[in-house]
User: Fold this.
Amino acid sequence: MNAIHRLGIGLAALGRPAYINVGRVAELPPGRSVEMMREATWNVLDAAYAAGIRWVDAARSYGRAEEFLGGWLTARAPEGVQVSSKWGYAYVGDWKTDAPVHEVKEHSLSRYRTQYEESRERLNGHLSVYQVHSLTEKSSLFQDVPLQEALAELAAEGVRVGFSTSGPGQADTIRRAMTLEVSGQRLFSTVQSTWNILETSAEDALDEAHRAGLHVLLKEVLANGRLAVRPPAEVQDLSSKKDVRPDALALAAALGRPWADTVLIGAVSPAQLEANLAATSVTLEPPELEAMARLSIPPGRYWAERSSLPWT
Assistant:
């Protein structure tokens, strides 16, 4: 498959005024009003579609991301676009960059039913995949049979059921979630997890998921912008040798994983997107891949550093 067709656009950093992505602020409208952020979102979606990208990922907690995306889909009527979204977190930031809390998590049947109706309404019937947002081994979903049964009903409506993961226990969560069945059928058909050259702890589990037939999506492949703005020296050196920017190199490493079906990128401007898309022309040789594999750090350390990133 052409590399461009394995890329998707994630709207986490576009649907709300504040997020933890490093290097995002200078690319966004200074006022970050709803109207300005809607325009920024449409600009990126227009550029992504023109480049050949056909997957867009949102979530109920991404502020107005579903609303922006639904409006774009209605106005542009693009062909062949797959839309994934997520439920479980609610956005409570009140469109403020300095909100004390931006999102609140709850994996309950009532939260799912409410948010599914909201997602359907805002996405105007374009929802292809609906995912449990940031599933962990401690999630009540694993014991909540009525919730599992309600999720399984989505398949009858033609919507695939998936889950996303985060935190140092991603691999265990993936393996446990793959065993969930409703009426003898596997519940989940997609999985979206954090993978980048610094955080590789889930890759064996993701490979297993891919081999089992799940559609694997990778998120945070630039480590929330850190690999673009302040990459390790080895990445900087190799990107200079390849004559590309570090973000393209990090994305190329993700595209180099054969079990990664869709690699999500979080560009917030057409210029940032163009820089990211250079990844599709980068070829990494085995010694180069091995050198980058040595940059992986313990997941506990990675997630502690991520949790310290400010919302700006």
In short: The longest strand covers residues 127-135. The chain has twelve helices and twelve strands.
